UniProtKB/TrEMBL annotation:
InterPro entries: PFN (IPR048278), PFN_sf (IPR036140). This is Roadblock/LAMTOR2 domain-containing protein. It comes from Lymnaea stagnalis (Great pond snail). It comes from the Eukaryota. One of its GO terms (molecular function) is actin binding. Pfam families: Profilin.
Amino acid sequence: MSYEDLISHILTTTDKVNKIIVFDLTGRPVAYTEGTETNQSEGMALVNCLLDPAKIMTKLFIDNDFFICVQGIEKTFTGTNIKDRSRVIVARLDDSHVIVLFGQSTGKGSFTYELQHSLELRSQGLLISQLAEQQQQQRGIPDAGTEVFDTQRLNDVVRGDQVLVNLK
């Protein structure tokens, strides 16, 4: 499942997160939310901080802001924006990519929990987009790439309270 699906899932299921970036281990941004500004040098600095256990605390520039970041456990770190103390980031290593969440610290919930929980759902095939795809397959609804399909069968399967996405 793509990182775009993970981003969509996180943004749909939590109000705390407003930006997400996924970097590969060379620092190249491979997926990110609209309005996010980053580049490979920022990504590489972030990856180096995350992978170097000697860097307990570091100042990191990302998405046009400076953050003071502290190492966590299990290849994670958290950071607080220097200008706006309520703006935070959380980064975590997932296989060969680093996922970074940005948001506001106000309200209930933990960024680290949201990220870890979403990654677990992704590995189990339980993201919102994955569940929708499974439901379509179980109901026999043709995928978006199908050119010709039986509209009567589609009407029999789809109730009025269901929403179909990406049918062209």
